[in-house]
Structures are given as C-alpha cells and as structure tokens.
Design a protein that fits this description.
By secondary structure, the protein is an alpha+beta fold. It folds into four domains: 18-86 and 194-218; 94-190; 223-268 and 310-357 and 381-415, Immunoglobulin-like, CATH 2.60.40; 428-531. It is 24% helix and 44% strand. The chain has four helices and 31 strands. It has helices spanning 2-17, 94-136, 142-190, 288-307; strands at 20-22, 25-31, 36-46, 49-58, 68-70, 75-84, 196-204, 208-218, 221-231, 238-248, 254-263, 278-282, 323-327, 332-336, 340-342, 349-358, 360-366, 374-381, 391-397, 400-407, 415-422, 426-432, 438-442, 445-458, 464-471, 473-475, 481-486, 491-492, 498-505, 510-522, 527-531. The strands form six sheets. Strands 2, 3, 5, 8, 11, 13, 14 and 15 form an eight-stranded mixed beta sheet that branches. Strands 21-18-17-25-29-28 form a six-stranded mixed beta sheet, with no helix packed on it. Strand 9 and strand 10 (238-248) form a beta hairpin. The chain is flat, with a radius of gyration of 39 Å.
Length: 532
C-alpha cells in the first residue's frame, strides 16, 4: 500500500505545482444603470497539453452565469470551475505586516512601563504599611518616628514623580498605538477583499504564450443620470447637458480603462403640481376609520411638501461632452472618448455625456388652487429623439441657478414639459367671492353656488403667456348635479372637471378671471368634496 500511496501523493503534488495563478487587468467596462459588464485580460505561458489556470481576486458580487472566456487559436477550454478562497482575508499585506510589527514594538514598551509603575506602586504600599505599624507601636522611639516620617515624605515624593513621568510616557505611546490601529483599519478598508476565483482547464496544442480574456457582469456598480437645463431667455433654444454619475464598489480598481455607459428608459414621474378631479357626493358622518384616512392623507401631503423642498446645487465645472453617442433600437450607448480610472469604494465620478440645443416653447403654468407659485415651463417637441431617461436636473435661467427638478421620460404627449422653476415676479392669487357664494333651499332641493376670482400680475419686463388650471367638482351620483355658471372664456374638460385658461399678459399688466358653479342635490342629503 505504501508505494501506491507515495505515487498518489507525488502525482497530486505534481498536478498542484502545474497550477498557474493569475490576476486579470481590467481593460474595458460597460456601465449600466444597475450593474456593469467588465472585460479583463492576462498573459499566460502554457505548456503543450493540459494546463490549470487559476484566476484570482475576482469581485465577490459577480454573476457566475455571465462568464465569457476568450481564447486564441490552438487552445481549447475543457472546464470552468468557480470557487471561493476563504483563507485570503486572513493573509496580511506588506503594509499591514509593517503596522502590526510596529504595534508589537510599542506595546512592548507600554508593558515595560506598566511593570515599573506596578513596582513603584508596590513600594508605596510597603512604606505605607510600615509607617502605619511604627506609628501604632508605642515602643517606637520618637526620634525614629521622625526619621521614618522624613524618609516617607522624601521617598513618596520621588515615587509619585517617577510614576507621573512614566504615565506621561505611556500616554504618548498609547496615542501612537491608537494611530497605528486607525491606519491598520484604513489599510483593511482599501484592501482587496475579493475572494472569488476561477479555475480554468485549458488544452494547448503547442507550448505558447496565451492572451487570456475574461468578461463578466458585476452587480455593485452602475451610474445615475442627471442633467443641466440652461435657458438664456424665453426667446432662445433650451440647452440640455447630459451627465452621468458613475460608481463602482466591486473591490477591483478600474485603472485607465475604456469606458462605455449604457442606458434605458424607465417609468415617468411628473414633478410639477397635478390637479386631481374634484368629486361631489353624499355626505357620510366621519368615523374613527375616516379620521385615520384623513391622517394618512395629511401625512402624504406633508411628505410631498418635504420632497419638493429646495436643494443645494450639484454641478460640475466642465460642460464639454466627453463621449460619442450611438443609438440602437433597445438602448443608447455612450462611448467615453478618453480612458477613465474609477477606483473601487471611492466617491462617484461625474462625466459629461452629451449636450444638445433644442427648440422649445416657453409658457408659464400655475395651479392657484394648490399654490400661488408660477412655474416657467419649456415644452419640447420631438422629444423622443433626445434620448432622455429619468433623472434629476439642475435648472439654470439667465445664468442663475434656480433649483432642481426631475426629468421623467415615459411620457405620451407630443410636447415634453420641463419645469424651469418658479418665477416670483409673476403673482397669482385665488380668492373665494363670499358675496357671490350662496346656499338656497327650494321645495325638495338645495342649491350651493361657489364663486372664485383669480388675480394675475405680470411684474416681468416682457410679455408672457400664462396657462392657469382650476376645476369644477364632478358628480358620480345621479341625484347630484353640477352646472358651470361662469368660466371666463376657459376651456372646460367635462371628464375631469378641469378648466384651462390661456392668457397673454403684457409687462406690468394685471388681469382677473372669475368663475363659478352651482351644485344641486336633495335637501335631506349632505354632501362633501374629495379628491382621488
């Protein structure tokens, strides 16, 4: 049995010695909104026949189903075996070893100082005990007590001074050890923690030097789209600057790589005030459940107000595109013109992807029922050709930073609306006309008349076009009828109850819009208004 055992051991050792360990250099990365496709390569010297190549330090979050191995002629890939190196994280780097040795050296100094302090403290205890015994002993001569007391005072002072100096030295060394621990933690943070490995069995027809390429997809990388919207005036085109915030936390640095940014179009989410239809129905007294619903609705409104609060500027100085754009049927691909270095775990890196001048129709928009702010809107035609995807946008008007808005791309109408922020110079106010509001009862029915006035003042230096949106309630009960009494040349949508007014208002001019409606219902019925 022994000869066979020795032969097996020799064969195993021989096979293990033929294993070639390699780490790939990342050459190219295609970054998606979530995830990235990474391509790397390494040079391997192969012997004729079977070769075992172990690719080490691959990202832990890579998808093992996405491996693609690129070989050259006269080679055949026999097998791929993904595996983990669970012992890797126990190994110390050269920097960690150096810090560890320095810490041991200083900890030894601390230990020696603590021994000295301990011995001095022990001596103090012995002196205190002897003095206590001599003082209590009535047979001790007075002269001896005086000499003992003087010795006590002198020696105790010396010991206290020595302990004080030793404590100072210990504190200094303790601080240096704390700094070493902090630096050690920093080394651990930047240390490559990747433990994924790939075991390849390659058959070579001849002895050769192989350029081995590997591609795979990782999850912990991606990019976030954002925009700069710049309008010099309402008479000039709108400039859209496309930006990408790229990040990767794969544990594998991308040094001087060819970078591509790939994108798709997510769902649309409008950012400006949206007017929901207002319904009128029979009133039902509130219960505790209704109170709860009211509380939830109020909480949602508060959350919406918080989400629309003013944010700080997030801009980068360069506005020159650094990418070449290619538009396929399924996505848009930006090819960066210059190689990029994106280090794992570090902050996001901004790049300018594209810049376009687009024709836009500028119009002001206001929903005074919800708030009195007036939004400057840019309506862009043929927006499907702009390759827009959802993202945050910085707004600039007349070279001034206005704030932030959201670009959302899943939009069905012909003109794409982009909010350019609030213009405080245009004042809109909505009031209820109490003298024209009435509640009447006749026979078996009640009539409620509601009247409102919208005041507009243009304090800009230019003539403006303003659209104002308000509404009438909608009845879903055959016993309740709603009738428009006055809508001031507005356009009424019977389905939604919304009224749209388009007004051209000259600079420094004020205008008023009056509208009213009547609600008729049985006098024994109570009604309430709600939105959904």
């Amino acid at each position: 049995m022994k000869p066979y055992f020795l032969i097996l051991m020799f064969s195993f050792s021989f096979l293990k010695s033929q294993e070639i360990k390699k780490e790939i250099d990342v050459k190219q990365a295609t970054v998606f909104l979530q995830g990235a496709k990474v391509f790397g390569s390494t040079n391997v010297s192969l012997k004729k026949g079977r070769n075992t190549v172990k690719i080490i330090n691959l990202p832990n979050d890579l998808n093992e189903n996405t491996y693609k191995i690129n070989l050259e002629k006269n080679t055949t890939l026999l097998s791929i075996t993904p595996q983990n190196n669970f012992l890797k994280n126990e190994e110390l780097s050269d920097g960690e070893k150096k810090l560890n040795d320095e810490k041991k050296k200083r900890q030894r100094q601390v230990n020696l100082l603590e021994i000295q302090i301990k011995n001095l403290a022990g001596e103090q205890k012995i002196i205190n005990d002897n003095l206590k015994v001599s003082t209590n002993d009535k047979s001790t001569p007075q002269e001896q007590l005086i000499k003992l007391t003087e010795f006590y005072r002198k020696r105790m002072l010396e010991i206290d001074n020595q302990i004080f100096l030793l404590d100072e030295q210990k504190s200094v060394i303790d601080e240096s050890i704390a700094k070493i621990d902090k630096q050690f933690s920093e080394e651990q943070t930047h240390k490559n923690q990747n433990t994924k490995e790939l075991l390849l069995e390659i058959l070579a027809d001849n002895e050769m030097n192989l350029n081995l390429g590997i591609s795979y997809i990782v999850a912990n990388a991606g990019w976030v789209p954002s925009y700069d919207l710049r309008a010099v005036s309402t008479k000039k085109p709108l400039e859209i600057v496309y930006k990408g915030k790229i990040y990767q936390k794969t544990g594998q640095d991308w040094n001087n790589v060819k970078l591509f940014v790939s994108t798709y179009k997510p769902s649309y989410n409008q950012n400006r005030p949206i007017l929901s239809p207002l319904y009128v129905a029979e009133y039902t007294p509130y219960s505790s459940e209704n109170d709860k619903k009211g509380y939830v609705q109020k909480a949602k409104s508060s959350a919406a107000e918080i989400s629309n609060s003013f944010q700080l500027r997030d801009d980068i100085s360069s506005q020159i595109p650094t990418a070449t754009v290619s538009d396929s049927q399924m996505n848009v691909l930006y090819e960066l013109n210059y190689n990029q270095t994106i280090v794992s775990q570090e902050k996001e890196q901004y790049v300018i992807l594209d810049k376009k001048q687009v024709e836009a129709t500028y119009k002001y928009h206001s929903v005074p029922k919800l708030n009195n702010q007036v939004f400057l809107m840019a309506f862009v035609k043929n927006w499907q050709n702009l390759n827009l995807i959802s993202g945050e946008a910085n707004i600039y008007f007349e070279d001034n930073y206005i704030g932030k808005t959201n670009i959302t791309a899943n939009y069905l109408k012909d003109e794409f609306p982009i909010s350019l922020g609030v213009d405080e110079r245009i004042i809109v106010k909505r009031i209820k006309l109490e003298d024209k509001t009435s509640h009447k009862t006749f026979n078996s029915n009640k009539w409620e008349t509601e009247s409102f006035q919208i005041s507009i003042r243009n304090n800009t230096k230019e003539n403006i076009e303003l659209e104002i949106l308000d509404q009438l309630p909608i009845s879903e009960n055959s016993k309740i009828s709603v009738k428009a009494l006055e809508i001031g040349n507005g356009s009424l949508d019977e389905k939604t109850g919304s009224i749209l007014w388009n007004r051209k208002i000259a600079s420094g001019v004020s205008e008023k819009i009056n509208f009213s409606y009547e609600v008729k219902y049985p006098k024994e019925m109570q009604i309430n208004y709600y939105s959904r």
